[in-house]
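Memo to structure team: turn this sequence into structure tokens by end of day. - J.P.
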Amino acid sequence: MTPGERIREEMEARGWTQRDLALVLDRSLPAINEIIQGKRVVSPEMAVALQGAFGIEATEWLRMDATFRLAQIDSDVSEVASRAKLYEIAPIKDMEKRGWISKTQTAEDLRAELLRFYQVDSLDSPPEISASFKKTAANDPVNASQRAWCFRAKHLAQSVAAASYDEAGFQKGIKKLRRLTGWPEETRKVSRILADMGIRFVVVEPLPRTKIDGATFWLDPVSPVVAMTIRFDRIDSFWHVLGHELSHVKHRDDSVIDSEIVGEGISPREELSPVEQRANTESASMWLEAAEMDSFIRRVGPLYSKAKINQFANRLVVHPGVIVGQLHGRGEIGYQALRDSLVKVRDFVTSEAMTDGWGHIIGR
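Reply from structure team:
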């Protein structure tokens, strides 16, 4: 029953006209007529007035009016439901802002954009780069933003020219990379050396609320990809994450997203899988011989000074920031100590690497 029908019943029972009711309610006759005709919403104030006139609870008048209004609305919500599902699969607004997908008007057009972006035929399940794709340093599954970031890295990697990868050239390439660690500006050469090793290297600025440091996956059996965010623009973080990902490539580990493997939020060693522990250990030894670092710690610790670190760095031809980063990682010094050694490298790296973000605009 609509509010108008109930009002008519109550007026008939009392022998009232619409004018009588208007006088009782102290409302205009047109207002009463519009409510009876269903042209005007029963406001909370009107519901209270009707309760006073007819003794029927104000909440009942509001319920009747709401039921009547809902019945007038097209109940097909399939478009809304479709769009809601797509927003669960992907960080739509962030992807539009970055230009990864076009802005759309309908759910069907949005679906088409996501199918193109994820390079899949269906969105019935969350798209994955590979069946074994997983996230490390946390027990949480890969979320929508992290997944989108990885697929953007995949897009870029597909356009990077590189040799076919083989294990024989891996160590030769590592030696060439090792010779770059002494100077921040030399990091611009990293992408070239990796391409010669058969490794496609890309840098993608992280999306909001994602704590990705890097990822490793394979386009095919001879085409590994190393992707990084460089979210911490520091020389120590750059070389550690790069070495960590190269360890995954060397051992042909499952496709993996590495999150929070640098900085103060890193997971304790005992919480890491054997694969991740190995990647951290191998990363450190790629750029600094473990025996050299152990010897330095025994001789100098805990009285680490900038002068002693610089002297050690000069002898090994490695930047002092790389040493400071390892001291941080080993817990030899606090994360706030000697931070002036942790120089920035992002601008150097992205000057030659395939990059999406920080003003680097690349077509979809």
